[in-house]
Amino acid sequence: MPVEPQILGRAVKAVQYRQHRALDSRLASVGSTLAQWDALRAIGRTPGVSARELAAATFQSEQAFGTLAGRLVAQGLVDRRPGRGRRLEHHLTPEGERVLKAGHEVANSVLAECFEGLAETEREALLELLRKIEGRPEGESGP
Questions:
Q1: DSSP conformational letter for 137
Q2: Helix or strand or coil: residue 32?
Q3: Mean pLDDT in each 10-residue stretch from start to end of the chain (143 residues)?
C-alpha cells in the first residue's frame, strides 16, 4: 500500500517538533534558546558573515534574524563589526563561544536520545534519504 505524502510529511514534522521542543527545553539550562543557539552555531561556523547569509543559514527571514541578532548583541554573545559598504559582520564574543560550546553538549545529548532507537545503518540510510529529498548529492556533507 503506497504511503500518502501528507502522512509522510506529518511524520517528518512530528519528529522535528519533538526534537525542537527537547532542544529548546534543555538549552535553557545553559542560558539559551534553540533559535539563539542555532544563530551562534551559524556565526561560529563562518565568523564575519552577514545577517543576510545568517538568516538563510538559520531558516529565518532577514527581519527575524536582525531582531534575534540584536538580542544576542545585547546579551553580550555576539559582536557586530562594520564590513564592506553597509554590511555588518557577526562574530562570537568569548561568552558567545562558551554558550555555543555548552549548547553543543546539550544538543549532542538530546539528539542522541532522539535517534537511540535506530541502528547506525538506519541512521546512515535516514541521512541519505533526507539529503536526497533536500536535493543534495549522495555523500555530500553540510550543516
A1: P
A2: coil
A3: 92 95 96 96 94 94 95 96 87 97 97 95 95 75 52
